[in-house]
């Protein structure tokens, strides 16, 4: 757990190797071969309506290339900006219309609870070693609590 505490894999396309060495690389530059060398648990979260990082083109290939353990959570009807509150800011309507105005997308108040639950459970389980959080990293929990998140797990 101590070695994992200093290494995290974050975001759908960003790899951060350590806190001390905060080099980050986007997946296309890192490549599939590089992803296979990642030796820490990974949690990827994407949205089914995301035109910026589409699940089939961005999220699934990264998940498949990563080692284990790995988790892939796809929030149904979430878009790229469903995971942030930037669309609530007045200037967003002028320069983020394509991102904030995706038809049928969930608003952040709907996506924040499952994303927060997964992220907190993942970090507590893998970084702190608190195994009681493992129950929150299951499809059963997500179905019961939210009903719109699909989870793949490969340990």
Protein model, in words:
With 155 residues, this protein is of the alpha+beta class. Helix content is 37%, strand content 17%. A three-stranded antiparallel β-sheet has the order 1-2-3. A three-stranded mixed β-sheet has the order 4-5-6, with helices on both faces. The model is unreliable at 1-26 (pLDDT under 50).
Furnish the topology, listing elements before pairings.
Blueprint: H1 2-5, E1 8-10, E2 14-16, E3 24-26, H2 27-35, E4 42-47, H3 55-65, E5 70-75, H4 92-95, H5 97-100, H6 108-126, H7 139-145, E6 149-154
Parallel strand pairs: 4-5
Antiparallel strand pairs: 1-2, 2-3, 5-6
Helix pairs in contact: 2-3
Shape designation: globular
Uncertain stretches of 5 or more adjacent residues: 1-26
Question: Any idea what the radius of gyration is?
Answer: 16 Å
Structural class call reads: alpha+beta
Instruction: Give the tally of β-strands.
Output: 6
Report the major sheet: 3 strands, antiparallel
* Overall helicity: 25-40%
Key traits:
single chain; 155 residues; alpha+beta; three-stranded mixed β-sheet; 7 helices; 6 strands; globular; disordered N terminus
């Amino acid at each position: 757990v101590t070695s994992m505490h200093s290494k995290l894999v974050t975001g759908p396309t960003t790899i951060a190797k350590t806190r001390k060495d905060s080099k980050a690389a986007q997946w296309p530059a890192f490549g599939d071969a590089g992803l296979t060398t990642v030796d820490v648990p990974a949690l990827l979260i994407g949205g089914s309506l995301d035109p910026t990082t589409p699940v089939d083109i961005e999220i699934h290939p990264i998940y498949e290339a990563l080692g284990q353990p790995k988790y892939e959570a796809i929030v149904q009807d979430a878009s790229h900006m469903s995971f942030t509150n930037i669309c609530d800011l007045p200037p967003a309507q002028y320069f983020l219309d394509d991102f904030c105005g995706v038809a049928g997308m969930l608003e952040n108040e709907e996506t924040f609870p499952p994303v927060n639950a997964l992220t907190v459970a993942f970090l507590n389980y893998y970084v702190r070693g608190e195994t009681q959080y493992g129950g929150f990293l299951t499809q059963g929990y997500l179905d019961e609590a939210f009903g719109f998140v699909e989870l793949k797990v490969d340990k």
